[in-house]
Amino acid sequence: MPQLKSTFLSREPLTSEEAKWKRLVKTNYIDPNGVKRDWESAERQTRPTDSPVDGVNIVAFLNKKNGSEILLEKQYRPPIDQVVIELPAGLIDAGETIEQTAVRELKEETGYIGVADKTTGIMYNDPGFCNANFNMVYVQVDMSLPENQNPKPDLEDNEFIECFTLPVSELSSQLQRLESEGYAIDARVGSIAEGIEIAKRLRL
Amino acid sequence: MPQLKSTFLSREPLTSEEAKWKRLVKTNYIDPNGVKRDWESAERQTRPTDSPVDGVNIVAFLNKKNGSEILLEKQYRPPIDQVVIELPAGLIDAGETIEQTAVRELKEETGYIGVADKTTGIMYNDPGFCNANFNMVYVQVDMSLPENQNPKPDLEDNEFIECFTLPVSELSSQLQRLESEGYAIDARVGSIAEGIEIAKRLRL
Question: Of A42, A65, A82, A128, which one has the greatest count of Cβ atoms within 10 A?
Answer without folding.
Answer: A42
